[in-house]
Protein backbone atom coordinates (compact mmCIF):
# COMPACT_ATOMS: atom_id res chain seq x y z
CA UNK A 1 0.00 0.00 0.00
CA UNK A 2 1.28 3.46 -0.81
CA UNK A 3 2.26 5.59 2.17
CA UNK A 4 -0.30 8.26 1.27
CA UNK A 5 -3.06 5.65 1.56
CA UNK A 6 -1.71 4.53 4.93
CA UNK A 7 -1.77 8.13 6.18
CA UNK A 8 -5.37 8.57 4.98
CA UNK A 9 -6.40 5.32 6.70
CA UNK A 10 -4.69 6.45 9.93
CA UNK A 11 -6.41 9.85 9.82
CA UNK A 12 -9.79 8.18 9.31
CA UNK A 13 -9.09 5.76 12.20
CA UNK A 14 -8.32 8.72 14.49
CA UNK A 15 -11.82 10.14 14.01
CA UNK A 16 -13.31 7.28 16.06
CA UNK A 17 -11.04 7.37 19.11
CA UNK A 18 -8.97 9.73 21.30
CA UNK A 19 -5.77 9.45 19.24
CA UNK A 20 -4.45 12.06 16.82
CA UNK A 21 -1.99 11.42 14.03
CA UNK A 22 0.72 13.94 14.93
CA UNK A 23 3.46 13.03 12.47
CA UNK A 24 3.87 11.06 9.27
CA UNK A 25 7.25 10.52 7.62
CA UNK A 26 8.13 8.55 4.53
CA UNK A 27 11.73 9.67 3.87
CA UNK A 28 13.88 7.62 6.26
CA UNK A 29 11.21 5.20 7.44
CA UNK A 30 7.51 4.85 6.82
CA UNK A 31 6.48 6.07 10.27
CA UNK A 32 3.17 7.25 11.73
CA UNK A 33 3.16 8.87 15.20
CA UNK A 34 0.04 8.99 17.37
CA UNK A 35 -0.79 10.81 20.61
CA UNK A 36 -3.72 10.93 23.02
CA UNK A 37 -4.24 12.59 26.40
CA UNK A 38 -3.06 11.86 29.09
CA UNK A 39 0.35 11.41 27.48
CA UNK A 40 -0.27 8.15 25.63
CA UNK A 41 1.91 7.95 22.54
CA UNK A 42 3.11 5.33 20.11
CA UNK A 43 4.33 5.01 16.58
CA UNK A 44 3.87 2.50 13.79
CA UNK A 45 6.55 1.60 11.30
CA UNK A 46 4.77 0.60 8.13
CA UNK A 47 6.06 -2.21 5.95
CA UNK A 48 7.92 -1.71 2.71
CA UNK A 49 7.89 -4.56 0.22
CA UNK A 50 8.46 -7.50 2.60
CA UNK A 51 8.47 -6.24 6.20
CA UNK A 52 5.56 -6.30 8.60
CA UNK A 53 4.22 -3.52 10.81
CA UNK A 54 6.05 -2.64 14.01
CA UNK A 55 4.69 -0.67 16.98
CA UNK A 56 6.74 1.07 19.64
CA UNK A 57 6.61 3.93 22.10
CA UNK A 58 9.24 6.32 23.42
CA UNK A 59 7.29 6.42 26.69
CA UNK A 60 8.35 3.94 29.37
CA UNK A 61 4.77 4.03 30.72
CA UNK A 62 3.28 2.99 27.39
CA UNK A 63 5.67 0.20 26.41
CA UNK A 64 4.22 -2.60 28.58
CA UNK A 65 0.77 -2.01 27.10
CA UNK A 66 2.05 -2.54 23.56
CA UNK A 67 2.94 -6.20 24.18
CA UNK A 68 -0.51 -7.39 23.08
CA UNK A 69 -0.23 -5.50 19.79
CA UNK A 70 3.35 -6.70 19.23
CA UNK A 71 2.30 -10.31 19.79
CA UNK A 72 -0.61 -9.84 17.39
CA UNK A 73 1.64 -8.42 14.67
CA UNK A 74 4.14 -11.26 14.99
CA UNK A 75 1.42 -13.93 14.83
CA UNK A 76 0.68 -15.68 11.56
CA UNK A 77 -0.89 -13.84 8.67
CA UNK A 78 -0.57 -10.42 7.15
CA UNK A 79 -2.11 -7.58 9.08
CA UNK A 80 -3.60 -4.33 7.84
CA UNK A 81 -2.82 -0.97 9.38
CA UNK A 82 -6.37 -0.71 10.75
CA UNK A 83 -6.11 -4.13 12.40
CA UNK A 84 -2.84 -3.10 14.04
CA UNK A 85 -4.25 0.25 15.19
CA UNK A 86 -7.34 -1.41 16.68
CA UNK A 87 -5.15 -3.84 18.62
CA UNK A 88 -3.04 -0.93 19.93
CA UNK A 89 -6.19 0.96 20.94
CA UNK A 90 -7.45 -2.13 22.81
CA UNK A 91 -4.08 -2.41 24.56
CA UNK A 92 -4.14 1.23 25.67
CA UNK A 93 -7.74 1.31 26.96
CA UNK A 94 -6.64 1.17 30.64
CA UNK A 95 -4.19 4.07 30.16
CA UNK A 96 -6.91 6.11 28.46
CA UNK A 97 -9.32 5.52 31.36
CA UNK A 98 -11.66 3.41 29.23
CA UNK A 99 -13.24 0.14 30.37
CA UNK A 100 -11.64 -3.06 29.16
CA UNK A 101 -13.89 -4.32 26.37
CA UNK A 102 -13.32 -7.96 27.32
CA UNK A 103 -14.83 -7.33 30.76
CA UNK A 104 -18.13 -6.26 29.22
CA UNK A 105 -18.32 -9.16 26.78
CA UNK A 106 -18.87 -11.95 29.27
CA UNK A 107 -20.85 -12.29 32.43
CA UNK A 108 -18.81 -13.61 35.33
CA UNK A 109 -19.13 -17.34 35.94
CA UNK A 110 -19.15 -18.51 39.53
CA UNK A 111 -19.04 -22.25 40.03
CA UNK A 112 -20.17 -23.49 43.41
CA UNK A 113 -18.10 -26.63 43.71
CA UNK A 114 -18.99 -27.49 47.30
CA UNK A 115 -22.71 -26.80 47.32
CA UNK A 116 -25.53 -29.04 46.20
CA UNK A 117 -26.86 -28.56 42.67
CA UNK A 118 -29.83 -26.27 42.47
CA UNK A 119 -33.26 -27.44 41.32
CA UNK A 120 -32.43 -26.50 37.70
CA UNK A 121 -29.24 -28.55 37.63
CA UNK A 122 -29.03 -32.32 37.42
CA UNK A 123 -25.99 -34.21 38.53
CA UNK A 124 -24.41 -36.09 35.70
CA UNK A 125 -24.43 -39.86 36.00
CA UNK A 126 -26.85 -39.86 38.92
CA UNK A 127 -30.47 -40.60 38.30
CA UNK A 128 -32.83 -38.83 40.61
CA UNK A 129 -35.94 -40.85 41.34
TrEMBL record:
It comes from the Eukaryota. Keywords: Cytoplasm, Developmental protein. One of its GO terms (cellular component) is cytoplasm. Its main location: cytoplasm. It holds the Pfam family DUF4581. One of its GO terms (biological process) is positive regulation of megakaryocyte differentiation. It is found in: Cytoplasm. PANTHER family: MATURIN. This is Maturin. It comes from Austrofundulus limnaeus.
Amino acid sequence: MEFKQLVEAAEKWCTGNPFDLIFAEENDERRLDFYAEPGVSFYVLCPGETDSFHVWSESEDCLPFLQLAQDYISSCGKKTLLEVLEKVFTSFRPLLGLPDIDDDSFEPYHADMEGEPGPDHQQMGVSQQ
